[in-house]
Amino acid sequence: MLAALALSLALIGPAFAADTVDINSADAATINEVLVNVGPSKAQAIVDYRDEHGPFKSADQLAQVKGIGLKTVEKNRDRIVLKGGKGG
């Protein structure tokens, strides 16, 4: 029984990981693929904002990107990961 549970979790893990994106390191194409209601131009705006202002400190900070509102942030909160790009 425990082995079956472990196998199930192992199979679910990679599928879940594919549905998240590190907005501090991902390119625009990846952001576009993973985030809902974010097309190519908004995805590029996210990358441009990150390049200009440094890594995002919170998902809510995405609302400061032109074309991204709080509704879009809320729809994507479970998809957003903040790892890469932090200076320490």
UniProtKB/TrEMBL annotation:
Which residues, if any, are the signal sequence? 1-17
User: Which keywords has UniProt assigned to this entry?
Assistant: Signal
Biological processes, Gene Ontology terms: protein secretion by the type II secretion system
Specify whether ATP-binding is a keyword of the entry.
no
| Gene Ontology CC terms | type II protein secretion system complex
The family database entries (Pfam families) matched by this protein are listed as: HHH_3 (PF12836)
NCBIfam families, alphabetized: competence protein ComEA helix-hairpin-helix repeat region
Under which name does UniProt file this protein?
Competence protein ComEA
Q: Which organism is it from?
A: Lysobacter defluvii IMMIB APB-9 = DSM 18482
